[in-house]
Amino acid sequence: xxxxxxxxxxxxxxxxxxxxxxxxxxxxxxxxxxxxxxxxxxxxxxxxxxxxxxxxxxxxxxxxxxxxxxxxxxxxxxxxxxxxxxxxxxxxxxxxxxxxxxxxxxxxxxxxxxxxxxxxxxxxxxxxxxxxxxxxxxxxxxxxxxxxxxxxxxxxxxxxxxxxxxxxxxxxxxxxxxxxxxxxxxxxxxxxxxxxxxxxxxxxxxxxxxxxxxxxxxxxxxxxxxxxxxxxxxxxxxxxxxxxxxxxxxxxxxxxxxxxxxxxxxxxxxxxxxxxxxxxxxxxxxxxxxxxxxxxxxxxxxxxxxxxxxxxxxxxxxxxxxxxxxxxxxxxxxxxxxxxxxxxxxxxxxxxxxxxxxxxxxxxxxxxxxxxxxxxxxxxxxxxxxxxxxxxxxxxxxxxxxxxxxxxxxxxxxxxxxxx
Length: 420
Fold this sequence. Notes:
With 420 residues, the protein is α+β, with helices and mostly antiparallel strands. It has 16 helices and 16 strands.
């Protein structure tokens, strides 16, 4: 899978951006010029649920009066697009009521499998809407966004503040009382208990602790994945992600770790590495083989293993990798070998990379004579440098450079990376 063109408008620090990526895209620029925002926007295009954050109100570009975000891309010659806007109060309350009743009915039917009349479900949704006071409506509306796909299908995404928890409990009591009207007298005592349990499960379910999205929102992601065979991997914090991956390891992951050990030795990432294990790592020393717990090793070592863990996934072929600040915690010597590995992965496995960096070492290695002839030939054809800047702190300026242009302006690019 390859992104051929990408357009981003009014998203965070990006006022307007359009460019045609290649297989390896290095995004450079000073702080607050929108480098990480590019990665986030690409990820959001494929995984719509990423919009559901407590900071969703800050997605809009603060310098623009236009409160609509547009992100689109051509992927394998097919156009995909999302727009994000602020919702009306009616859109939010309707979506909230529908999702709340849907969750409640689902939880209730765990214990009692029976069909509930659709008309009555609509009545319950109306009860929810009528019982939302002004404060609840205001909180819902300011913490919600509407995302539309290229087919014009709308999904409301929302996060719920904990300050509304007491009001949500009161609302669930009203719904429970309405449901009790359906129960036969002889079943009332037993079923009322099930209703209260269903209400508690609804309140404490992840969708209402962290937020909710309409059913269309969940469907959108599935449709995109099926239609475009999306495999987008966003690596935000290598160390955090490797710690999580190791803590959740499965038996079959041992083979993957053995593969990483082999790669690390072949590329000489860690010169004295003897054996790599989830719990204990062995090194060759002048005093023999010594072991250290993985958790006690340095961030540089963990960063290398973490990145190799991501790049050795079975899903890596034909994927898009979004990598934020490759150089974090790494010695320049490690960076060189990792860049060579990235080039090889892109070439052999058809992987497209989008990498942000503040490191002059990263840029110099990609443009240097240290690469072998095969690597240089590939980079000459498949490297793009996207230099981000801004005019008067508001309008995004992006300069897209190919390999030759990057070499010609290398000194200027390096000075900019050093903040000079």
